[in-house]
Structures are given as structure tokens and as C-alpha cells.
Design a protein that fits this description.
The chain is mainly alpha-helical. It is 49% helix and 8% strand. The longest helix has 17 residues.
């Protein structure tokens, strides 16, 4: 997700991305803001857990924390097998699994349509128990 401050500065980022795409023969959409539609899935407090990647002139790059990445991948894993493989490769610790349980509890509490995360819970249980 790309966050600019102020938000109006995103046009500058988009123009720089377009120049980079032309220079490096990348797809015009190589850098986009499409993931923003999934930002509601980020666990509470994610922005306080951002990890600094680097500063490049006026550009500060941060990444979501490992816990927050695991949470997003857990939600997606029921539809995208690559996300489940990624979780398995990352090998969540007991603390991270406990975080994911709390995250699913919170998602269910906040769900306006009474969504259930039973499939994600089953995947998490399998990970916790070492099932393949």
C-alpha cells in the first residue's frame, strides 16, 4: 500500500513510477495502489509496527511487520495456495500464532456481516499442530 503525506503527492509518485517503467522496460502498472482496497484487513496497530526499509532522497520506504504480513497471508490463504506456502516457509513462532488467533477473533468481532473465519482458523490449527 502506498501512503503519501499529503495524499495529493501520490501523483508525483505515480509519475516517477511511470518514468522508471519506461527506463527499465517494466509493465506500466509495476507500482500501483491496488492493494489499498485490502487495507481494512490490516490488524489494528499495523502502522505502529511498520519497519523501515530505507530512505532514498525524499522517499521513505517502510514495510508491514512480519506479524501483519502473516495476518494478511492467512486471510488470503483460503483462496491462494501461494499464501499458505509463504506462511509455511515463514514458519510462524508460537507468539505469532497467538497473535494470529487474536487477529481472527478481532476480525469476527468487527465483522458487519457476521463473517466467519473458520477456514482460516482451520489452517492456523494445522500450522500450530504441525499438520501438512
Amino acid at each position: 500500500m502506498i501512503v503519501t503525506d499529503p495524499a495529493e503527492r501520490f501523483a508525483e509518485v505515480a509519475e516517477a513510477a511511470a518514468r522508471t517503467a519506461r527506463e527499465l522496460d517494466l509493465a506500466p502498472t509495476w507500482l500501483n495502489n491496488d492493494s489499498r482496497m485490502f487495507s481494512w484487513l490490516l490488524p489494528i496497530g499495523w502502522s505502529e509496527r511498520l519497519e523501515r526499509v530505507g530512505t532514498f532522497g525524499p522517499l521513505r520506504v517502510e514495510a508491514i511487520s512480519r506479524r501483519d504480513l502473516l495476518a494478511l497471508k492467512l486471510i488470503a490463504a483460503v483462496k491462494r495456495t501461494q499464501d499458505l506456502k509463504d506462511i509455511e516457509t515463514l514458519g510462524p513462532s508460537a507468539d505469532e500464532i497467538a497473535f494470529l488467533h487474536r487477529y481472527l477473533d478481532q476480525m469476527e468481532l468487527e465483522s458487519l456481516d457476521r463473517a466467519s473465519f473458520d477456514r482460516q482458523r482451520a489452517l492456523l490449527d494445522d500450522l500450530e499442530n504441525g499438520d501438512d
